[in-house]
Amino acid sequence: MAAAQSTLARSEGAGASYIWILAAVGLVAFGAASGVAIAFGETGAFYITLSLILAAAILLDFRIGAVALTLVLPISQTNFFPHSMFGIPALNPFNILVLATLVSYALRGRLAVLAPAPLVWLYVVPILIAGLIGMPNFERIFPSFFERETLSFTSAFGYFRDMAIRPLLIVATAMLVAAAVARAQRPERFIGAIIAAVWVIALLELVVLASAGVRLGALASVSGRDADYYDELGLHPNDLGRLFAVAYALLLFVWWETKNAVLKTVLFVTLGLAGIALVLTFSRGGFLGALIASGLFLLWKFNAKTVTLALVAGIFVLVLAPEPVYDRITMGFDSGDMNVVSAGRIEGIWAPLLPETLKSPIWGNGIGSVMWSDPLWNGMMLLVAHAHNAYLEAVLDMGFVGLALLLAFYWHVWRNFRALGANAYLSPEMRALFQGGAAALVVLLVTAWTGSSLRPEMEFSLLWIAIGMMYGMLARKPAN
Predict the structure, then answer these.
(1) Do 22 and 130 belong together in one domain?
(2) Is residue 130 domain-shared with residue 99, that is, in the same domain?
(3) Which residue has better confidence, 273 or 50?
(4) Taking each helix axis from N to C terminus, what angle separates 43-60 and 93-106, rounded to the nearest 10 degrees?
(5) CA 369 to CA 385: how far, in whole Å?
(6) Where are the beta strands (DSSP E) in 68-162?
């Protein structure tokens, strides 16, 4: 037995040495390549080098890729993240990470694990079918979207790639996280990856706004929200608002339940950072999402302690919230006109698009059908590329059948979130994460009435990470 243990110790030590040697070689290679890339001003070469070295590490353990994707996903659509390199649209660090992680997992596990039946048949397949339905309408897209460079595709195939395939990379990322969680000794560590992702996107927003030197009043105004500093970031403030509302929902429950003092402190600071970043978006949808998450927290954790906490937090917010926040929340109330309150959505978007739902009420007109709708061509609506109502969008693009399938998938997610959130065999942190996931799902379904989509969108990327962790925990259960 002693000899066996000695041999095992030597073999483990040798294995660890090899890993450290590979890591050292990788760091040296990365440093050399980065120096060359910077010297020649080739930022593309820098990102490629970084991606390839990280991909090499991922091939050793696909879970490294799952963590990296969790960190990168929320910022992957910002202008600070390369979307293409060397003129090749699909060549970017995010796609390289997804491919490397997928290959690494395929060498070690069954790909069927990445495709649960409810996800495939209720969600992925309907989206792909809607993309195929929309392809013949590429030539009918309103020309202004191409003239303003709102769209990055120039062909029917490019339409299908960008509108149907590319958003599903969010789902693929979630399922790679699921595979990693299923094999992780301590799946709670992925909560740390979510925390780090919140810090990255929040600090990025704060740096952009600070460098622009913009005032709070300007951020709250309609003209200010369309200013160049949001163009520099590459994300609309409403998208950021919903992203931080989801992060708040997920982490609030974990902060309450964890008994780890260090983690509780980190979560408290992270919630404060997310709250500041959310306020600076001046997104009414984001504010509503945070209020919904807080209300569900109070409802599900109702006791004297949580009521006291809610009262203190409410007073704190009321006293310290700057006046532009109230101006933004009450925008249009003094007019008594619901169209003004809705920022023109009712008369400028929703009412003109309602007759379009009758064109193909069963299976819809294809993804992004607003872009070739009759009201848009006839000048009867605002020049927008989406319906600013996820349910109306789903009926327009995928019909009532598609809407029913998407809602059936989210019902499936809700039931599993609630079940795992009450599972006594999970750690308090994991139970709390899934309770927060259920709250975040409600945030999606409620705020979807004024924007976003029921299909994969970047503002709900952290919710998708939680969905991936949900599937990972379900895969850990015994077969019986």
Answers:
(1) no
(2) no
(3) 273
(4) 20
(5) 8
(6) none
Domain finish residue from 49, 79, 106: 106
- Please say if the pLDDT value at position 357 is more than 50: yes
Instruction: Count how many residues are written for the chain.
Output: 480
25 with 122, same domain: the answer is no
Specify if 480 maps to a domain.
Answer: no
Verify that 192 and 270 share a domain, yes or no. yes
Helix axes 2-39, 43-60, angle to 10 degrees: 170
Task: Give the end of a domain, one of 106, 125, 158.
Answer: 106
Interacting residues of 263 by C-beta distance below 8 A, sequence separation 6+: 191, 254, 429
Given a cut of 80, is residue 317 above it in pLDDT? no
Asked whether residue 456 falls in the same domain as residue 426, the answer is yes
Q: Residue 88's beta-bridge partner residues? A: 85
Weakest-pLDDT range from 145-159, 373-387, 388-402: 145-159
Contact 209, 229 (CB under 8 A): yes
pLDDT at 33 over 60: no
What lies within 8 Å, CB to CB, of 366 at 6+ separation is 130, 131, 132, 133, 134, 135, 136, 137, 397
Say if residue 32 is in the same domain as residue 160: no
Residues forming a β-bridge with 85? 88
Residue 224 sits in the same domain as residue 81: no
**C-alpha torsion sign, points 127, 133, 138, 140:** negative
Residue 377 forms part of a structural domain: yes
Same domain, 286 and 233: yes
Distances (CA, A) of 162 to 79, 208, 352, 372: 17, 27, 26, 16
Give the H/E segment covering residue 273: helix 261-281
Residue 8 domain-assigned?
A: no
- How far is the C-alpha of 285 from the C-alpha of 408, rounded, in Å? 24
Cβ-proximal residues to 219 (8 Å cutoff; 6+ apart), any chain:
209, 225, 237, 280, 282, 324
**Cα gap 234→42, rounded to integer Å:** 22
Q: Report the number of distinct structural domains present in the chain.
A: 2
Which DSSP helix (H) or strand (E) runs through 249? helix 237-257
Is there a domain that residue 5 lies in? no
pLDDT at 34: 46
Question: What is the distance between the alpha carbons of residues 289 and 246, in angstroms, rounded to a whole number?
Answer: 7
Q: How far is Cα 391 from Cα 406, in angstroms, rounded to an integer?
A: 10
Can you give 147-181 as a three-state secondary structure string? HCCCCCCCCHHHHHHHHHHCCHHHHHHHHHHHHHH
Instruction: Supply the pLDDT for residue 235.
Output: 84
Q: Which pLDDT value is given to residue 224? A: 54
DSSP symbol at 85: B
90: domain range? 15-106
